[in-house]
Fold this protein.
Amino acid sequence: MPIVSAVVAAALGTTLVVTATANAATTLGAAAAQSGRYFGTAVAAQKLGDSTYVNLLNTEFNMVTAENEMKWDATEPNRGQFNYSGGDRILNHALNNGKRVRGHALLWYQQQPRWAQGLSGSDLRQAAINHVTQVATHYKGKIYAWDVVNEAFADGNSGGRRDSNLQRTGNDWIEAAFRAARAADPGAKLCYNDYNTDSINPKSTGIYNMVRDFKARGVPIDCVGMQSHLSNNAPSDYQANLQRFADLGVEVQITELDISGSNQANAYGAVTRACMAVTRCAGITVWGIRDSDSWRGGENPLLFTSSGAKKPAYTSVLNALNAGGPGPTTTTTTTTTTTTTTTTDPVPPGDCTASVSLNQWNGGFVATVKVTAGSSALNGWRVTTTLSGGSVTGSWGANGSGTSGTVNWTNVDYNGSVPAGQSTEFGFQGSGSGSGLNPTCSTR
Ligand code: XIL
């Protein structure tokens, strides 16, 4: 490959290009992986027989989302009768080709089966939670992240929820769905996913407040999906908006990116650079491969032309991915160093206790740790756990110093203050064994 590049570049008289890209990855997935991120696409099952499509999919992407096949209408066409044929085809293609899968979407006000559209109240609530449990159980252990709830917030200035049959079952429907999903597949990251959330606006702030509340109350949520169906530009505060969510202790994922308009290549570059600049931005998914695959018919918002050629937007994205940025992998290393230094300082014996409740299954676990203040209030706490063999793959409500062996967990902003005798919680999930964690607590 480098030889071919050199020949082409020399013929064009631009040897400089060769120097600049000598060590750069040449596919989107490989370029994203350099910083511990992924680059994905939406996939339609009926296109898996199209060789141009499949070649691009297999070469360029390392994450896959089913465009429609895992939605409620597709997976539960009749109440209690499940059909996973399309979803399984996509999942198997992805897993057989070394790609991971984002599950999309367990509950949404659109693309509901007709029988669910006609339900309301506790009957609908029960059907919805059963749907979450059944589908997440079917795919247990195979999904990297689920969009548990899709598009539940209203557009405009209210900052509140969108009216829907699901919303009318009670405001707690979202947390009920997240708890059911966690119970069914503790290894999957659980995301809330929405659109028009690309800047700091009333809708994204409404979602931000919900996530903050979930984290404070221990409702399991790991990530926020920004669909990012954009026209011509990324908003100027796109990165700042991602960062404020990341600062809540959740990952951000760009889940359905497509950008129309003549400024497309620049805008794609800006979105990619924003993700690369936010440590907890885990990856980017575009909503289709070629322009002809897009749901935005005629707008040509994707990275490949209808005949499968790379567009200028493709190059912008690839260059931005290759330019690097602190990724999830890099950060872990940094945090380890910092906290190891801290723990060598003598820490006064703390007036707090910690206990763990463990959900262990074959190959993985979720640990929920309860931190309880003693006779005086806590103003910052540290919990030390010991992992014998297992390793941490994700966490919420605390910053961990590493992923294996002795891990020190320190409070995040919202849960450092604990009144005397009261408790707060944080948790983490991991692969392998979570037994013998033996948490101890001290003050900071
Ligand atoms: C779209 C699909 O791309 C279309 O094929 C389908 O007809 C409608 O849904 N937000 C989402 C996606 O979360 O599921 C939608 O996908 C696009 C908007």
